[in-house]
Design brief:
Order of helices and strands: EEEHEHEHEHEEEEHHEH
Oligomer: single chain
Largest sheet: 7 strands, mixed
Structural class: alpha/beta
Helix content: 25-40%
Radius of gyration: 18 Å
CATH topology: Spore Coat Polysaccharide Biosynthesis Protein SpsA, Chain A
Shape: globular
Bound molecules: cytidine-5'-triphosphate, ligand LQXTBERG
Distance between the termini: 40 Å
Number of domains: 1
CATH class: Alpha Beta
């Protein structure tokens, strides 16, 4: 499945090996269609529209009957690898397929976030390169945050100030990210995104504010919302 990547530009990794349990569809959610294209294809097209991204590594499930047809039109820029049990395993499999300098920047973006704005990806890239720091797209929390007591009672109101929703893309140097995820996985740390792996090894991570349209398609209701945002971005590209 793997052919090695050799380039010095930014390389994107798309974890696309999830099963979409919360979506509850009869196929993994990244293969559901919105506006005539699968969610994964919308995501691939967003990354292809970013000039600095030279290659995209897609991590898909081994038994996946859908992926080959979807990536065929983009086979000149896409490398396919086999994903893993957890999202972090899939990301690491993608990173392991990249044969580039340790200093190469990699940008990890969920297959399930097709509505990200190209302008926000470009902004993340330029902030990380300018400040020589890894960073993520994120959005400040807008609601009051409650902590439960494990029994549907509120135990506490958390301080909202300074709280952010973590989105993707998340951009780091290849070697550092590989080391961080490998260490986190080896120590059974909870690694739900790339930033949490970097935090685990004590590295600072930059927050870059994203448009709120960058939703993770997770539950059935998200499909209509994603269609609305994708339609809006298609129309604004026509103007
Ligand atoms: N073992 C896994 C699990 C998740 N992902 C990917 O990571 C992204 C974010 O995960 P999530 O939205 O949680 O997707 P699923 O795991 O498919 O959803 P669920 O948790 O509802 O099953 C998705 O693009 C998903 O395909 C992956 O590549 N490998
Ligand atoms: C990476 C991510 O999308 C950032 O919000 C998120 O952590 C993925 O989480 P999930 O547990 O796979 O839904």
């Amino acid at each position: 499945m793997v052919n090695k990547v050799t380039t010095q530009n930014i390389i994107a990794v798309i974890p696309a090996a999830g099963v979409g349990r919360r979506m509850g569809a009869n196929l993994p959610k990244q293969y559901l269609k919105i506006l005539g294209k699968t969610i994964l294809e919308h995501t691939i097209l967003k990354l292809i529209s970013v000039k600095q991204i030279s290659r995209i590594v897609v991590a898909a499930s081994k038994s996946d009957p859908y992926i080959a047809d979807i990536i065929k039109p983009y086979s000149d820029v896409i490398t396919l690898v086999e994903g893993g049990q957890e999202r972090a395993d899939s990301v690491l499999a993608g990173l392991n397929a990249i044969e580039a300098s340790a200093n190469t920047w990699v940008l990890v973006h969920d297959a399930a976030r097709p509505c990200v704005l190209t302008a926000d990806i470009n902004n993340l890239i330029s902030q990380c390169i300018k400040l020589e720091r890894g960073g993520i797209l994120a959005s400040p929390v807008a609601d009051t945050m409650k902590r439960d007591d494990g029994n549907l009672n509120i135990s506490k109101t958390e301080q909202r100030k300074g709280m952010w929703h973590a989105y993707t893309p998340q951009m780091f140097k290849l070697l550092e990210l590989k080391q961080a995820i490998s260490k986190g996985l080896a120590n059974q740390a909870e690694i739900t995104d790339e930033a949490s792996a970097m935090e685990y090894i004590g590295k600072p991570v930059l927050l870059v504010e994203s448009n709120n349209c960058n939703i993770k398609v997770t539950r059935p209701d998200d499909l209509a919302l994603a269609e609305f945002f994708l339609q809006k971005s298609i129309e604004s590209n026509k103007e």
